[in-house]
Amino acid sequence: MLPTTEPLTTPPTTRTSSFTRFACAVLAWNIFVILWGAYVRASGSGVGCGSHRALCNDDAVPRALRLATIIELTHRATALNAG
């Protein structure tokens, strides 16, 4: 009779809990992005980069940073990480 060896894979309960932690972290990050977007909208900072969607006041990296611009760029960065 051959000796039995244990499989080299992670037990299902460990994989499930790792996935659950990851899923909760992704959910929390997305809720943060939504709430930050609500703040951007409520504070009027959505126009911090003007009407240009891809660029910020016709610059990839704006030179003159106002508070509204910083808030808008921060929201863009957090949303980019969520996507």
**What does the main sheet amount to?**
none
Total beta-strand segments: 0
Q: Helix segment count? A: 2
Average pLDDT taken over every residue:
82
Task: Give a verbal description of the structure.
There is one protein chain. This protein has helices at 12-43, 67-82. The N and C termini lie far apart (53 Å). It is mainly α and 83 residues long. The mean pLDDT is 82. The chain has a domain at 29-82. The radius of gyration is 22 Å and the shape is elongated. Helix 1 (12-43) runs antiparallel to helix 2. It is built from 2 helices and no strands.
Task: Write a concise synopsis of the structure shown.
With 83 residues, the chain is mainly α.
Question: Keywords, please?
Answer:
single chain, 83 residues, elongated
